[in-house]
Give the backbone structure.
Amino acid sequence: MQLVINGLVIGSIIAITAIGLSMIYKTLNFVNFAHGDFVAFAAYIALFANASLGMHLASAFLVAILATIVLGIFMEKVVWHPMRRKNASRTTLIIISIGLALVLRNTLIFIWGGSTRNYNIPVRRGFEFFGATIAPNQVLVIISAFILVFALHCLLSRTKIGKSIRALSDNIDLARISGIDVDRVILWTWVIGLGLAAAGGVLYGLVTAIRPDMGWYLLLPMFAAVILGGIGNPYGTIAGGIVIGLSQELSTAILPTEYKFAVSFVVMTLVLLLKPEGIFGGAK
Amino acid sequence: MGVKVKILEVRDLVTGYTDLNILHGISIHIKSGEIVSIIGPNGSGKSTLMKTIFGLLRPRGGAIVFKDHDITGVKPDAVVRLGMSYVPQEKEFFPSLTILENLEMGAFIRDDDISDSLERIYAIFPALKEKRQIRAGSLSGGEQRMVGIGRALMLSPDLLLLDEPSAGLAPVMRNMVFEKIAEINRAGTSILIVEQNARRSLGISDRGYVLETGRNRFEGRGQELLENEDVLRLYLGG
């Protein structure tokens, strides 16, 4: 039971952080290797606002999301958009994103050092639940993730901008032909994808130590979730994230903990071999 | 009937993808209210011509005039706003969006109420109304074609470009598509069709052009072309 709870917690974090990775992958046709470092960036901004500026964690959460979105918009304007205009190849974009990942991570190390940090919040006792101990922070993570997913669903299915985001990820050429302002919608895709990644990053900091490489190590499970869910399918990615989180944690019942991350790799490889379009179907 | 004005005129259009030109000086025109077919074998430049008219490909020479606007080299989003819509040959719909959402995307640039346009499209394609909450990706080929054409009609365009509207469809569906095209035209939309299925396409057209390796080969009234022996032998399989 404890493992199931832990799995759901990490699974929700993987789910909400991976959505942006999936949407950008499908819409712009490249894998953003810096995505995980945006997750870490958000956790550090929240840490700074909370521990250094003394803000309440809820306000720090919002500050972190905003800061990450601003950084994301900046990157789109200075890097990704000019690169698309030059018809940069997919490989070029991927290599740029790896470079960006390194810059981001080392900036975090430069400012805050490489050691692990924690938010300045009171430690509260966990409570018993069917023989498992649940920390209040874990409940907070699951509830927040649930709210974010619901908000995302409303946005994608009810608003014009949300529908156009899905349209772009389906068929960007047809979106252009229909007169949709593609560049503006791409900007929104970044805003929402990175906003969710940032929220996930701050929440991740609640249940794990904040380290500069926390996002980088989350990248592999995120990829696994994206591929499991079908690239560009946000709902599939959410389900994929939960599955990966659960399988990672449950594996520790039979395997040493160090193999946790290998589990997502194995799951991803199996899916690629058996059903390359993802178990939830790519981009439906 | 008064003198029909040219809604679109293409003069000496030259274009291509790489170093090689695909079109070597094509000239066509469409008068207001006409259906015009462009036929020709594979590689004759039919689709390339459409993409260039719509601004998806930059012309290297020649001119394109649409409703008295010079649209040579103008990007698709601006062409759409002038009143031209385009249904590409493949992937003419958004698979993960519902039928209704597909149609809404066709009206993306409009901020007003779109229910009139929706009703007009449902009147042309009643099947779309019943299934409007169903994802386009799960529809049959014929229904997907309807979604593609419906999306393009959401802005009530003056000119509709259709790239191979009958490709890949069963014969019954093909007939349906050509009947619908004629119906849309009767309601006032000028139509330019590129088709492999030349016989059916010319059958509903006022005029047609036959292209060969990026050049004009024949032109004439739809019936004339169908009866022209050279056209018959070369493009209609005897």
Q: What stands out?
A: Chain B is about 35% helix and 25% strand. The two ends of chain B are 36 Å apart (CA to CA).
